[in-house]
Amino acid sequence: VPGIxxxxxxxxxxxxxxxxxxxxxxxxxxxxxxxxxxxxxxxxPDLTYNLDPRAVVTGEDLTDSQPSFDRNGRPAVTFRFDSxxxxxFGDFTAAHIGEPFAIVLDGKVLSAPVIQSHIPGGSGIxxxxxxxxxxxxxxxxxxxxxxPAELHFLxxxxxxxxxxxxxxxxxxxxxxxxxxxxxxxxxLSYGGLGLVATFALGMNMAMLIGLLSAIGATLT
Length: 220
Fold this sequence. Notes:
Layout: H1 7-14, E1 20-28, E2 37-40, E3 48-51, E4 57-58, E5 62-69, E6 75-81, H2 83-95, E7 101-105, E8 108-111, E9 123-126, H3 132-145, H4 162-190, H5 192-214
Antiparallel strand pairs: 1-3, 1-4, 1-7, 2-3, 5-6, 6-9, 7-8
């Protein structure tokens, strides 16, 4: 499981019943309406959201959710609904720009982003003060919420990394051989210009690997 290195974290994720809904936010704190839903925030138990019990869309309408980055390069989460969910969500966002809506999973508010603009087409992005790990976890929970099912653990095994290390070693060897062959071909074919191109290729690889390391990306 890329991005998750703890068996207990993985079990807590896949063992969640994951009943997902998107509800309008009426306010924070205890609501006065007897029909309102008063649910705590998942990361701040002392914070209570007063929600409209009528969900705009539910996990049944969600088709996909993935960790991503916004236009400013900050970690974010993308999501996509099916055709019926897209229509309902598009109509709701068009009529409630500037207002928050809550992403509710198993009776807790995962996030309550503000609607920045009309979201047609059934896809959108959730931004906030997320880390890469948090966007991976949130997108996993959203995808899990699309299929509510209770999980019972019958057996648990931990597999060692020997096979993975063999693959990494073989891949690294192939990469080095391929890189050397390309560099030799460029130098033999283009002389000094090939040497400059080889240097540029090396700088490009160094910057790419540095960027992937900085954002904690997972190579698969």
